[in-house]
Amino acid sequence: MSDLPILDIVIFAPLVGAVILGFVPKDRLDTLRLVALAVSLVVFVLSIGILVQFDANAAGFQLGSSAEWIPEWGVGYTTGIDGVSLWMIMLTTFLMPLCVLASWSITRRAKVYFVFLLALETAMIGVFSALDMFLFYLFWEGSLVPMYFLIGIWGYGRRIYAAMKFFLFTLVGSLLMLVGIVYLYFAVGGDPTFDYRELLGTELSLDVQRLLFLAFFASFAVKVPLVPLHTWLPDAHTEAPTAGSVMLAAVLLKMGAYGLIRFGIPLFPDAARELAPIVIVLAVVGIVYGALVAAMQRDLKRLIAYSSVAHLGFVVLGMFVGSLQGMSGGILQMVSHGLSTGALFMLIGALYDRRHTRLIADFGGLAKSMPVFSGIFLFVALSSIGLPGLNGFVGEFLILLGTFFTYRWWVIPAAFGIVLAAVYLLWAYQRVFHGDVTDEANRSIPDLNPRELAMLAPILALIVVIGVYPKPFLDRINPAAQRVVDSFNSSVEPDSATTAGGDRVP
Amino acid sequence: MTDLILAAEQGGVILDHPAVLAPFIVAIPLASAVLLLLFGKRIGKPAGVIASAAVGLAFLASVVSFVEVLSFPKEMRGWVSETFTWIEVGRFQVDANLLVDPLSAVMLLVVTGVGALIHVYSIGYMKGDERYSRFFAYLNLFVAFMLILVLAENVLLLYVGWEGVGLCSYLLIGFWFEKPAAAGAAKKAFIVNRIGDFSFLLGILLLAATAATLSMGAINAEALNPNGPGPGISGGLATAAALLLLGGAAGKSAQIPLYVWLPDAMEGPTPVSALIHAATMVTAGVYMVARLSPVFEAGGDLALMVVGIIGAATALWAAIMAAFEYDIKRVLAYSTISQLGYMFLAHGVHAYSAGIFHLTTHAFFKALMFLGAGAVMHALAGETDMRKMGGLRKAMPITGTTFMLGWLAICGIIPFAGFFSKDAILASAWADGQYVLWAVGVFTAFLTAFYMSRMYFRVFEGPLRVPEGVHVHDVAPTMAAALIPLGLLSVVGGAINLPGLLTLEHFLEPVLGESHVPAGLTPWVLGGIALLVAVGGILLARSLYMTRASSLRRRRAYARIPWLVDAARNKFYVDQIYGYTIVLPGKAFSGYLANVFDTRFIDGIVTGTGRMIARTSENLRGLQTGYVRNYASLFLLGVVVILALLLLRVMFG
Predict the structure, then answer these.
(1) I need a surface site. Which of A387, A441, B246, B548 has the fewest CB within 10 A?
(2) Rounded to the nearest 5°, which phi and psi values hold at B450?
(3) ipTM surpasses 0.95
């Protein structure tokens, strides 16, 4: 059983499912939905195999496989995961069935839609599993295509504009990364290879590191997104169909953060450390800026999109302060944000399906007509604004603590972001759910149906689990985080003041 | 620590040790809350009974725990119930451990005792509400979080309870969310508290990073022993930590400058005002300062001076507003702010146990008066304007009589509970040499007696006066069941600290240190002064509200201080000042960022660059099939670039 290449099976299972879906006649809507749901559920069950077999105490990468692919170029099919990739993969496979459930309102060209969704899943899992830079790049670019079509074909209003913008932003970033990958490939002495684990130890001069770091950083910073490269996000989020928004927020943005952890810092630690102050400034600006801009949005989806800018600012902050708490907190926050924001997009999608609007001004008094919906919305909103006992708090606190050790004063604006989060979400909540029903159309909106409850319940449960007992998550994250922090702090002389910060933890 | 082990072998009266029950004390109301949240609609009417029973059970368990604590010798009265590790990253570890010691044992009794009574009261009060079971679910949830707050052994777990009660406060202030005022008040309460919590959180980070732990026992030990083997908490660092913690306390306990949410919070159902916004949650700040008192002591004179000044100023400020307010609940709200100010004043003069003593008696008489006010509102079809009330004591004997007890207690008339606790605070201020704080406290005591008597006389004495078409009735039995015990406690509550065998102060000594009260004749003189001003306040109110010429006298009195009357009735324009200096500029700035800076400037630059690229392939703006082709070609271009480079490498490498 344990000989089964479970990771590789999980990577390609969705693609196989997509092929199976190809045999279903395109007008059999119910069958299409059920097959897509079944496939995504099977993938999730398979991925539990990964979770079970994952050894929290093992060092390095595990459960992977390695095969020659284009040996003369040093390209291999190499996969493997650590604690970071583990939770990113679990997040992806966990959310996918729920995304299928959130796609019941897709009736136009549903077959192609589900094919794209499943293809996207393979690409995303691949990104988190690839240990060969070439393979990674293929998956990375590969994830662009299905998302581009999901937005462009099944999106709302200005979907063409949004899809194009999403595509161009990320592509420009990706091309810079590509140049970086190729340069790295050439820069290494010995047998040319794309194998990440072999590239890891490469000695590079600071100048070269700096250039390469910036090339990778460009790609990842767009994806995260860091201010000021974020403006594709509100458009893409808003115009994407619900499942697209969920996947975009929950997983695709995390690919950027993941890239920083996996490649940006470990491959170019000296440059990362040197440029960390700049990254930290961008992250903190993102926290405050995203929150301020979110407060004034009129469209619920845009509001959540800007809140993502703020939350991902926290994630990046944690990663670059050079302490274990910050790093682990940042990684946990990636999972938490995926759950909370994913659920918020599902809820807004459900609301849109009923009222065909997302404008805050069109609502009011919904708590009366949709008590269950509004209760769940509040619950998720609270998790998003970091209420202790729910998932968001654990990561945010760890990030702030980690920041305090090394960049003491920066916790002030960052923590202020938590105040602002309460402002924008509760203000929006008041306008949408409280007060009297002002528009008759809102008086008799049906509350959540069983399908929608089934799609939300697992997320709600996890929100509580991570908030109350994050230990199983952190236990698997910590070793991976420790490795990245070590590489971040590594090549400075031990006596230097800058390392003390990373080590001076309780 | 060895003491604990010794004591553990010894065993308690009933239990192994006093903290055994702690997890259950939290779990019972929590389980009930979850049950009611999920199945409340189906459960229906029994929801109130279930919720009350849950808190009642927690009360019984608290009594047992309290007795257990008493059964141990003084130096062995701190017990930890270990549950599970909450967060662990590297050497940073936070356990969800619960602490039972004299301080938390007293708080347990207050929270579950008063809580249980208010639950019972609510069965009658909320009867017929369309979200009846939801109300009790929130109330139970509140009690559970309050108990976490009180029992937390580390400051982060305390923060969990702290934010949790804030959430319940939000939910319950906005319980009647159809009313825009209620929804607005709920949001205001949450956000103002978050501002305080921002400060609190920074304080927690500072303590965590300095003491390398979040355990409050360990933090206090570092503060008490700064030169010990540990890192120590002292000097400017301790001052900074104390002031940051105070910021959090000022939010939750409605002190200057963050008190503005509490008057608005009166939009919530009245039992909520009694439980959360008078007896328990708002005292969390008082509790937290007491719990971390060594940090405040280590913070030096500056930290404590700020605590004392904020307390005294808030006590006075709120009392003035209470004196001119007509809304029965708002008078009580200002009164609560003012009395909380007294508790901070106590802390500021090192009299932590006096602060907790006043917290306890205040919980009795203020909850009682809120519930009485609720009974009046019930009888008068929701009326809250005191000008439309009068002579209700005869029409509502139970309410009127119990309210009278609460009134005498808060006025500080001997031998009612408030006399002793307020006197303890004032005497401590005197003993500490803080004569200005003492004087402010005495003057506030005069104002307190005045505004409370004003309310009592207006509402319950004189000729019967009710809004038209209202048939006055006294309370339902369940409501009386809460009023009568609270009335009794308002009378005898002071006895817990009467000089004798076991006083509250001595009981709290292991946690809060010894208290210093003046010796000799001084306490009698001070007590006499406090009593005199109280009587003076009552007499002034009597002359302005109870006599034949009172309305004329009132008019004359007000004519002498028109500016004060006007300012106080407008809450000293503080809401407006905050609105114009913080909210409006903030909105304008955010609006500028969102509508101009982000969309035009940043997006303009970035997409402008993008558009230039797009222009080179103008045909991209075509049909969807065109996109496929063009995307594919771009993607291919990328792959070709890689392949070309690889080829070069293979050929020339």
Answers:
(1) B548
(2) -65, -55
(3) no
